Amino acid sequence: MALKKRNKPLDGFSMASMSDMVFLLLIFFMITSTVVHPNAIKIMLPQGAQQTSAKPLTRVTIDKDLNFYVAFGKEKERQVAFEEIEPFLRQIAEREPEMYVALYADEMVPHREVVRILNIANINKFRLVIATRPVK
């Protein structure tokens, strides 16, 4: 009894696995694009037990070298002098009266610099949240 071994190559190509790969790549890029928030300014936020879920529209950032940065919405942060912060926030408040201001200050920033920004928010009746990182 002689059994023949069949080693013929298949003439067709199955696209089923290719569509699975495209679907998985699509899901991967959708998830990673919503997770990535490009922030070129390197700051170490202080730890806080309570985190806010409000999405502030306007960001004020102070790095450890006491450089001030401002941004609105999804704009890239731009460096400004301290004197330019209040006019910038007022201009945004005219367009967006319900805006929130998020203060991102490095944990090495002196307290007086944070208080200066808090005073601007208090005088102009801006709603301000201080960004922190979760306690580990």
Written overview of the protein:
It is a single chain. This protein is α/β, with parallel strands linked by helices and 136 residues long. It has a domain at 47-134: Nucleotidyltransferase, domain 5, CATH 3.30.420.270. It is 33% helix and 20% strand. It is built from three helices and seven strands; from the N terminus they run αββββαβαββ. The protein has helices spanning 16-35, 85-95, 111-124; strands spanning 47-48, 58-62, 68-72, 78-80, 100-105, 127-130, 133-134. Strands 4-3-2-5-6 form a five-stranded mixed β-sheet, with helices on one face. Strand 2 (58-62) and strand 3 (68-72) form a beta hairpin. The radius of gyration is 26 Å and the shape is elongated. The model has no long low-confidence stretch (mean pLDDT 81).
The total count of helices amounts to 3
CATH class of the domain at 47-134: Alpha Beta
The percent of residues in helical segments reads: 25-40%
Q: What is the terminal separation in angstroms?
A: 72 Å
Beta-strand fraction estimate: 15-25%
Order of strands, main sheet, comes to 4-3-2-5-6
Q: Give the name of the CATH architecture of the domain at 47-134.
A: 2-Layer Sandwich
Q: What is the H/E order? A: HEEEEHEHEE
Output the structural class.
alpha/beta
Q: Which spans have pLDDT < 50 for at least 5 consecutive residues?
A: none
Radius of gyration based on Cα positions:
26 Å
The total strand number stands at 7
Task: Let me know the largest β-sheet.
Answer: 5 strands, mixed
Subunit organisation of the chains: single chain
Report mean pLDDT, rounded to a whole number. Answer: 81
**CATH third-tier fold name of the domain at 47-134:** Nucleotidyltransferase, domain 5
